[in-house]
What does this fold into?
Amino acid sequence: MQANRLKKIKIKVHEIIYEADTPMGKAFDVLLAALILFSVLIVMLESVASIDAKYHKLLLGFEWGITLFFTLEYFARVFSIEKPKKYIFSFYGIIDLLATIPLYLSYILAGSQVLLALRAFRLLRIFRILKLVSFLGEASVLKQALKDSRNKILVFIYAVLILCVIMGTFMYLIEGSESGFTSIPRSIYWTIVTLTTVGYGDIAPQTPLGQFVASMIMILGYGIIAVPTGIVTVAFNKNKNAAVITNTQSCQQCGTEDHKDGAKFCFNCGAKL
It folds into this structure.
């Protein structure tokens, strides 16, 4: 009797924190997203010396409240899944842990300011709101489009890197150390900054030939920026037309998500949903 009651509690907790098909599950995800954004705002405010000096106790109180909520949520996620290791060592499981422990570690380790970077990991948790029904379809299509495009984008980046090495070497030979191009790596750095249209201005070509080459690189940069966008857009439209409708159900046994609408069993482990 006690075991059945515990089982029902685990199923209910799992339904609320891992899924968004129910009103309570959706409300939990919205609350979680709001707290994540608020916690990141607290981290930003703490980094401003004048604000932290005036409102340190208030900000610390908010931080403790958020940390305690994240701690309870983390243990609830571990409790509600049948195979806790699947969650603990998953991408989101590690991110959840990194988002929870900084405040505790600050009382153990010296130089706790470095832990601000860990608290910024909380922003990655905002992707959990993509489980909400209104975002689920588009998020699934975008994820598949990025996955389908990765090889083309990697080849494109490789080609751009080769171009930067070649053009950087040319600029080193054309300009020389007198113009600030003191080495090939520094010249490659200038080429990347110019090609991406960032243009810091810390190095600039002085010779007519160098300025001509720089002009060609700048013009080329505008064309290169559009290539990855076009690759992903084509893949996105292709996947959107062939998208499979999924829901927010998460397997309690293995934690697998993205099940098709109407599915009664997990496609990964076969457990009943």
Notes: The first helix runs from residue 2 to 18.
